[in-house]
Each structure stands twice: as C-alpha cells, then as structure tokens.
Specification:
Blueprint (H helix, E strand, L loop, with lengths): L1 H29 L9 H11 L2 H7 L2 E3 L5 H7 L3 E4 L11 H16 L8 E4 L17 H7 L2 H17 L4 E2 L23 H7 L2 H6 L4
Parallel strand pairs: 1-2, 2-3, 3-4
Helix pairs in contact: 4-5
C-alpha cells in the first residue's frame, strides 16, 4: 500500500504544480496591466488585484546593489535596486559591465510571476561618476557660483545620456539641500545657502528628464 501511495502523491503534486504554472502563464498573457492600450488606472487596479502581500512588500523595497543577487530578486519580488556612491560591478567597470549587470537583474525581475520590471537607480550627483571614462562635473557648490541655470540644465542632459547608455533609467540627483552650516557633511553638494539660487538651479531636473510637454 505504501509503495502505491508514494507515486500517487508525487503524481498529484506534479499535476498541481503544472496547473499552477499554466494558470500563471494564462493570467500574464491576458493581463490588462501589460496592455499599453488600457488606461493607466485600469492597468494599476488590475495589477494590484493580482498581487500577493509578499509581492506588494517586495515592490516597495529598494536594496543596495552590493549584496544583491538575481535569486533574491526572484524570491522576494524586489522592486528597486540602488548603486550608491562607488557601488559598481567591479573597480574598473566599463559601460558593457554595467549593461550586463543591469540586464541580469532585470531579467530576474521579469522572470517573476507577474513580470514587473525593476527600477534601477544610481547616485549620479556629479555626472555618471561610477563608470570609467564618464564625464565628471564640478560639485554643486561650484556650479552654484556660476549662477547659470542653463549650463546646469545641459549638465543634466549630458548626465542622463551617459546614465541611459548603461541601461539605468533612474538618477539619484540633484541634491537641492540649502546648506547654511558648513559642518554639514554634504554642504559641497548644495548649490548655495540662498534658497532662491538653489531653486534656479533645479533646472537641471529638466535636463535629466527632458522637457515634458
């Protein structure tokens, strides 16, 4: 009796597993949230309605790249990764190294049940400074002295171009803190102690994002 029971249990398990996988594929193929022709609200509601609590928590989580693996993204449905200052694939990472790494993480995200793309961000306060041969720009305190918002906008556009070339869509920039005490460790990343000048320099955002019409 025991010999017959074990194969039967295995058979039932495999049938359930295959049915579950098949159902997931059918859901994804017909999902409204993947249809760009659907209104945004319809797509959002459709996706939220399909997500488990674990998937929602994972999507709201951003982790540092340094200790990240494709398996962690798959297992915990991670929604976003960040490369902080100096967090690179290797010490002398080229554009190809960055693209390959980002693609590997993105493929892991797309392989999850719902296939939600990963948001990858990078600290690019002074240009795409973690990539070999990227253009490095002066610190914000130096750019603020120029009193030239249009120049800063061009710097934003140049930075965005180099970031996108490495497969990254999200820049952790600019810093718009108003520093009035040089003891603050990030004072050099402030355009000015005058909030009006800082406000003018936020034109860099239009350079980074492009002119939204």
């Amino acid at each position: 009796m025991r010999r017959r029971l074990v194969p039967l249990v295995v058979f039932v398990f495999l049938c359930c597993h295959e049915a579950k996988q098949g159902a997931a594929v059918i859901i994804n193929q017909n999902a409204k949230y993947k249809d760009p022709k659907q209104p945004i609200e319809v797509r959002v509601n459709d996706l939220l309605g399909k997500m488990t609590l674990e998937e929602k928590i994972g999507q709201m989580t951003q982790l540092e790249r340094e200790n990240m693996t494709a398996e962690i993204i798959k297992d915990y449905f991670i929604g976003s990764l960040l490369s902080g200052g100096g967090s690179a694939p290797n010490k002398h990472a080229t554009v190809k190294d960055w693209v390959d790494m980002v693609n590997k993480f993105q493929q892991a995200a797309l392989a999850t049940r719902l296939g939600i793309p990963l948001i990858y961000g990078i600290d690019a306060i002074h240009g795409h400074n973690s990539v070999i041969n990227a253009t490095i720009f002066p610190h914000n305190v130096g750019l603020g002295v120029t009193r030239d918002p249009l120049l800063v906008k061009k710097i934003g556009a140049a930075t965005a171009l180099e970031i996108r070339a490495t497969g990254i869509p999200y820049a952790f920039t600019p810093c718009i803190g108003v520093c009035r005490d040089p003891r603050w460790g990030r004072c050099y990343e402030s355009y000015s102690e005058d909030h009006k000048i800082v406000q003018e320099m936020t034109l860099i955002i239009e350079g980074l994002q492009g002119d939204v019409k």
